[in-house]
Amino acid sequence: MNFAELKEEVLSVEHEGITYQKTIYKNATTITGVTDEQYPEYSETQKYLHGDNVIVPELKSIYRSTIGTIEEPNVGNFPCLENSEKWVWFGYVNSANMFALDENIGAKTVGTDVVMTMDFNQCNILSFVDCKFHLLTVSQKCNTTQEVTKSVISGKDISFDDFAEYCFKPTKQKRKVILDLEWLPSSTVTLTFTGDMSIGTLGIGREEELGFNIIGNLLTWESQSKFDINQFTGFRTVLRKGSVRVLSAELIVDTNNFNSTAMRVDEIFDRYMLWIPTKKDVFAENIDIGYLENFSMKANDKSIPTQCKIVGVPTK
Known about the structure:
Number of strands: 22
Strand content: over 45%
CATH class of the largest domain: Mainly Beta
Radius of gyration: 23 Å
Oligomer: single chain
C-alpha cells in the first residue's frame, strides 16, 4: 500500500500584534470560474448585528456574528478564538472549500468552466475526492523546456461490450480521481473543467511506499452530523456535516521492511494522508484521504500480520 503526504499551506493574518492561523491543503496559484460569497470584509469600525456575515480574506474564512443589536452592536471585536462568543466560524469561502482539512467535512467547492493552475513543486500525485464533473483536461508544462503533456478525463466511466448495453446501461459517475503527474520539478499544472463541477477535497503530494499489503478489511461509515438542541425551547435541529469512512484492515509486512515501515508510520501517524492501493492490495475502495487512528506491528515471522485503522474524509 502506498501513501502521499499532501502538501499543506498555512494561512495567517495579524491583528493588534497577534498572528492568527489556519492550515489548509496547498492552494492553487490561480482559480477562475469559482465565485466566492459576496460578504464584506471585516472592519474594526463597522457595527455588526446578530447574524451578519463577514470575510477575513487572509484566512479565506467566513464568520457570523452571534451578538449585536442596534442599541448594542458587535463592534471592534476581531473574529478569533478569543471572541468566539461573539463570532462563529462559518466555513471557508467557496474557492477554498476543496483545500480544507477535516474541520470542513461535507463542504464542496462548486463552479462552472473552472480553470486552476498550481506549481508542481516536486509532487507526482494529484487527487480529487468526492468530486463531480463532466470533462477534465490536465496539462503539465515544463517551465524550462516549454514541453507540455496533456490528458483528458471523462467524469463518467463508460465500459460497454455492445451497442445494446451502451443504450440501456447507465454510466457510473466518478467520485474519486487519482492522477499520476510527470516528474518535472519546474513545471506548472493546469486543470480545466468543462461545464459544472464540484470537488470535496483536492490535494497534491508525492507518492511513497509504506511497506505493507492489505489482505483483509472491515469498512464502516460514521456520521459526523450533530444534534443542536435549543436550551430554551428544546427544539432539535440536525447539523449536516457529512460522513467519514473507517477502514479496519489486516496487513502483511515483510520482515525486511519492518524497520522502514515502523519509521514511516511514526512520521505520518495521526496526520491526513492520501492512501493509494497497489495491485497486491485486496480493497481498491480504500483510495481515500484519512489518518491512521491506530497501528500495530508484530515481529515474529518472515511474514508479519498486523492491523491498522484508517479514518477517512468525506463521502458526501
